[in-house]
Amino acid sequence: MTAFPRSTLAGSGRILAANGATLLLPRIPSVLRPETTLMAQAGIQPRAQSPAAHIRGVADAVRRRVLEHTLNNNGGYLSQACSSAEILATLYLSVMRLGPSQEPLDPRPFAGVPSSANPGAFTGAGYNGTKAPELDRFIFSPVHYALVLYSLLIELDRLGPDALDDFNRDGSTVELIGAEHSPGHEVTAGSLAQAISQAGGIALARRMRGETGRVWVFMSDGEFQEGQTWEAFAALAYHRLGNIGIYVDANAQQCDGPMDAVMGIEPLAERLCAFGAEVHEVDGHDPVALAAPADSAIERDRPLVVIARTDPCRGLEQLRERAPKLHYVRFKSDAEFATYRSLLDSLRAEAC
Amino acid sequence: MESVQRPHRENLIRWAASRPEVLVLSADLTSSCEADGFRDTYPERFFSMGMAEQNMMGFAAGLAREGFFPYIHTFAVFICRRPFDQVAMSIAYPNLPVRLIGFLPGITTAGGVTHQAIDDIALMRILPNMRILECGDATDVESVLDVAQDIDGPVYVRMLRGEVPRLFDPSEPLRFNRARVLTQGAEVLVLSTGICTEEAVRATQALRTRGLDVGHLHVSTLKPFDDPTVLEAIAKAKRGVITMENHSVIGGLGSAVAELMAERGLGVRLLRIGLQDTYAHGASRQYLMREYGLDAMALVRAVASLIGQPLALTEDDLAAVRLETMRQVDKTEDL
Fold first, then answer.
1. Is the pLDDT of residue B269 over 60?
2. Which of B20, B90, B95 sits opposite A197 (nearest CB)?
3. Taking CB atoms and an 8 Å limit, are B54 and A202 in contact across chains?
């Protein structure tokens, strides 16, 4: 076992090749990443639009799908879709090196909680591809964003178009608050701020094994109120873990309302810098700006943080009328429902 | 009776030599938890996580998911109380093979209430997937890692440090879910754990010389709690059962035995020796064991209560009992 294998390039040819490929990747978010590479191999022509435009299109489709679901169920985590759609779409389409999904388009039913007596228990990580030394891993922390992640997986054809029919249905893995068996999820993260530490352990293990793939964590800004988050950043910096990157949806919203009315976390960038992280603060709705800090050609010895400043109502102006209570949207009247219904129709028309 | 200086320290170095997948994580109590030898011998497998137990549990979980076997070394209170949610959600729920090595069980420390784990077994018992082992002597300490390592899932170990007595023959290692039968007897059964076993042996030897037919088992697996040896011994006890533990009587050995007896309909009396729903304070182990009734004399009093007659045994009588390293009854009888 090698503790710091990244300095030793005498690994297998496979790792070296992956390294080389990584180093040659262009800086601009590229569609020539695993998903579209596969498309190219299959003879499918890449979209004519720019990568950023493609990501924007996927993000808008995620918003529409979450809105549709919220209408159908009279409730949903709608503002989370508005704030995070570009971040998650950029991660999947531009930043992360993931293999094709290993899981069925129709999510498997719940197979029971993990235990020694239950070898059938599984996680939802297979939706993010196989685990391989040169591939990245995705750790999803604020699992009340699950509906947004499921919707994105559908847009990326990692989940089938009807997967949300199972959402919050008894016996399904497509749970309301994502669990480790839910599609796209890998760890138990619902007690907020626990995922970053688990991701740190995974990153440490990967470094010990000499793997070149990185660990990406998606977090919400509210999690920076928890002490564990700061314990984790201290440890990531102290152990010089440069193979981990954290994207933060800084939408300034939490369950009780605007964050500054609950508990302040600012200045977040300065605090994280002081903790030893490499910090970038970007427009969280701009795919190019979001992807730029994740340059995989750079050898890091400290964690990367991208604070994505976002708007919790982006793409659904109507939502601002509900401010400051945006955490979970349930329509208050038939009239409000009808307003959002027609909004969805107009968004669909725009997309055509 | 032989005693061993820091048995875990040397054993951990020796035991980990052939196990490169074993890591040690520490939270600023490395020497205090006898992990300094491991740190100095295998620095690439030792990770200082600072005074940050919540994060340490998450890191351990992540490492375990990737195929490593993290051995957390810290005081029992800092495993079971402060990061309880992290142990429950990051480690126990996914049934990850993290080994939580908890030092300073119960009143083994003069560090007072903040350092005395009087509720650790109770807290770990209620977590699904968690298994619990407790060491009572140097032989237990030297063999508990093998037992823990064989378990598929998380394990909490109540560990002893410093000078540890050798109560049990080193050729008879701790066995998973199998109590050590120290004496057999049909009138009264004593079930003891951890450091209470030494005290219990002192009392049972004195009681047997007075002709009392007292059985005694040393229990080292507290979860699961379905050891047939324990069950059979309880079923044989005519006058009743006494549990003796360095822990609150709520949630530990006494509770586990009560649950077992009630579920199996074993209708004899049960007396629970342990901390009687009270916190303790900082003082010597000997002083606290006497103050809180965890010593040999407390067991004599409990036996007298159970059989309904006074026993003419004094503290001097018990102090005069000479303890030898023991072999299990079933083995000695074979000889």
1. yes
2. B90
3. no
Query: Is residue B196 in some structural domain?
Result: yes
Task: Flag whether residue A3 sits within 8 Å of chain B, measured between CB atoms.
Answer: yes
- Owning domain of residue B121: 3-165
**Which of B136, B165, B194 is the endpoint of a domain?**
B165
C-alpha pair distances (Å), A232 with each of A61, A150, A235, B154: 34, 27, 5, 22
Report the largest interatomic distance among the alpha carbons of chain A, rounded to a whole angstrom.
66
Q: Report the interhelical angle of B228-236 vs B253-264 (nearest 10°).
A: 70
Determine, for residues A201 and B63 on separate chains, whether the beta-carbon distance falls below 8 Å: yes
Residue of chain B whose Cα is closest to the Cα of A121 = B94
Residue B173 in any domain: the answer is: no
A204 inside 8 A of chain B by CB: yes
* Residues contacting B60, CB < 8 A, separation 6+: A201, B25, B70, B72, B90, B91, B96, B98
Cα gap B26→B73, rounded to integer Å: 5
pLDDT at position A41 is 53
Q: For residue A332, give the 3-state DSSP assignment.
A: coil
| A82-97: average pLDDT | 98
Do both B49 and B99 map to the same domain? Answer: yes
ipTM of this complex: 0.95
Q: B-contacting residues of A 275-294, CB under 8 Å?
A: none
Test mutation, B55, B63, B86, B151, chain A, max A CBs within 10 A: B55
Q: Does A255 touch chain B (CB under 8 A)?
A: no
Q: Tens of pLDDT along A105-145?
A: 999 999 999 999 999 999 999 999 999 999 999 999 999 99
Q: What is the pLDDT of residues B46-98, one digit of tens each?
A: 999 999 999 999 999 999 999 999 999 999 999 999 999 999 999 999 999 99
The residue among A335 and A11 whose pLDDT is bigger is A335
A312 touches chain B (CB under 8 A): no
- If one counts the domains in chain B, the total is 2
Spatial CB neighbours of B334, under 8 Å, sequence gap ≥ 6: none
Q: Is residue B287 part of a domain?
A: yes
User: What structural domains does chain A harbor?
Assistant: 52-109+120-351 (3.40.50.970)
Structural domain contains residue B77:
yes
> Which residue of chain A has the CA closest to B45?
A3
